[in-house]
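Before a colleague's protein record goes any further, I have to sign it off. Alongside the sequence sits a line of tokens, each denoting a local backbone shape. I want your independent view on whether this chain really folds as the tokens say. Where you disagree with what is written, explain briefly why. This is what I was given:
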Amino acid sequence: MLTEREILSTLEMLKSEHLDVRTVTLGVSLLDCSSHDADVFRGRVRTKILTLAGGLVKVCNEVGDKYGIPVVNKRISVSPVAVIGAGFSSKELVKTARLMDEVAADAGIDFIGGFSALVEKGLARGDLALIEAIPEALSETKRVCASVNVASTRAGINMDAVYLMGKTIRSAALASASSDGLACAKLCVFANIPQDIPFMAGAYLGIGEPDAVINVGVSGPGVVKKAIDRARAVSNDLHLGRLSEIIKRTAYKVTRVGELIGREVAARLGVPFGVVDLSLAPTPNVGDSVGEIFQSLGLGSIGVPGSTALLAMLNDAVKKGGAFASSYVGGLSGAFIPVSEDLNIAEAAEKGFLSIEKLEALTSVCSVGLDMVAIPGDTSAETISAIIADEMAIGVVNKKTTATRLIPVPGKKAGEKAFFGGLLGEATIIGVRDGQSSDFVRMGGRIPAPIQSLVN
């Protein structure tokens, strides 16, 4: 694990560069909670989560205090509710979401993920019930997060599910209209979703995971920016290859910190350690921005020409550093570009440097996709679905994870502001070309898996 020298080298990162463990997420399998009786099922869910997670916050705080490394968020991910609650109606699954919210509050948890369905190849009855429940479930709860995987490289793109999610996103936005469609900020639509993501809103515990496991998400955009700034201050003629090496070395140190914290938390809780997800996940705070890294590397703003190439370099360097630091790197591990959650990226959108098309281009090389993108409230379900389909295609063809977290803000138009609060921040609503995709989306069916899927 970390040597004394490595621990000392993190002190400046902790003091002034926003280094923290962004989330410790306890994965809890609920497969053994299944029952034909909804009340018995929910009782088992409550008991198991609280039994395993009751001490999570206390342990995280103790370990964070021991090393002087703050654990900002403590979270839970559970088995896909569409699987464990497959026999129940949407109304019963809404009650399950309320129960999950109550349990998270009782445990002092920030978010609980796993109100999820995996439908890349087809929609089962439990999947349909869960998706139908999403608007009410997310608008009536504070901590519950949902994700739906509609595509994979092996299966292709389930366009019936894509269209259904377009309509679901609109319904969720309208159900939370008083908070600018906030329910949609807790809903991700994925291609190639990993089973071990610790970050919300996509976190869930995969079917192949242990009964309980600790996964850690470490973020460090401020650390990466400062490392670049220091290097350029010493030598202003550094080439991009050398700067990539600096990013890689910085990612290595941050990953080691994450694994140190994660392993100790797991040991104290008596559960296995899973993965460390090194994702440059920003916040709305100054100095904790992925967008600012672009400026340190010579671009006027994220979104200008050169941004895609730079993001590809950044993502690659982060993954290389993390892979060298730990044999258990997982989740997403790269650079996030959530528009509302990053002050610099939000400003770039406000100034017009980021359109929906440029964001889509960036997602071909980033870790997630169209993340926390506010769009006009009157955007049709068909257009939302078509945007999702485009993003899914990037993930499927490139054998990578992509996702959308689109928020059609009720009653607001392009250029206006949406306010979500806290870590979710605020964003200028980005214009969308609406009205020309309906026939394509309504055809439905499944776009076949690409030739890249034939790897056996």
In short: The first strand starts at residue 20 and ends at 28. The mean pLDDT is 89. The chain has two domains: 26-191, 214-451.
